[in-house]
Write a structure and sequence with these properties.
Number of domains: 2
Number of strands: 11
Strand order of the largest sheet: 2-9-5-4-3
Largest sheet: 5 strands, mixed
Structural class: alpha+beta
Radius of gyration: 20 Å
CATH class of the largest domain: Mainly Alpha
Number of helices: 7
Distance between the termini: 32 Å
Bound molecules: zinc ion
Strand content: 15-25%
Order of helices and strands: HEEHEEEEEEEHHHHHEE
Length: about 280
Amino acid sequence: MPELPEVETIVRQLRARGVEGREIRSVQINWLRTVEPLSAAAFSRQLRETVIEQISRTGKWILFHLSSGKTIMIHLRMSGSFSTEKGSHDRVVLQLSDGLTLYYRDTRKFGRWKLVDDPQQILGKLGPDALTRQFTLNYFSEAMLRRHRMIKPLLLDQSIVAGLGNIYVDEALWESKLNPERRSDSLSKDELAVLFKAIKHVLRIGVKNRGTSLGDGKTNYRDVEGESGGYRVKVKAYGRAGQPCSRCKNALEKIIVAQRGTTICPVCQQHSSQD
Ligand SMILES: [Zn+2]
């Protein structure tokens, strides 16, 4: 599932492909449930002859800001991706001015395109984006200490911090040597600072490497160029159960935390004695 670095990579590539500034000439919707809240016909009508003025990202949302004042908010969920080449599983096709066609591909069909008047209706419910200045150590510490939950589900909760998913949470926890089941209010000031830094670090490295793709399945993340993300080689924990920890050489283990598959080093990421 695309997380902040994968979505950021896609946004940068859409800009590089010159999607910004083009007019939408026609809209083809092949899977009706991809678009909300309007019918496919009404959705298409509202998009036609508007210009995609700007593309931005908040958390895992991609925003197409239209000249009509409305915004298309796109969430890729499990397997959404974009291409400028026709493929199979294309759910939405936008014919743009000057001959560019944008294909939204989604094998598993969970992705959504929402046409909204005000993106704040949705973004207002999110915590700060993890790579923005609004996401500060003070905010993060306060948010963690005020709650009494396990760390991992809190980090996955988009209303606390937006952009993280299973991959980068496992990476940040491994990096900070913290057990994902630790209670958020048991973290010391130092541990919070280390975790905060690790979150920013793994996300920045992820963006730099154009995201992460694991496995070779059809639903696997692909960027706009059809390439897998380069972060795969950098992954220290996620998806590496059974392989040696690159810090202590013990075998990494897969456990379940809050219903999510989680990879940890059982030596580096022990529960601390005060738990
Ligand atoms: Zn280890």
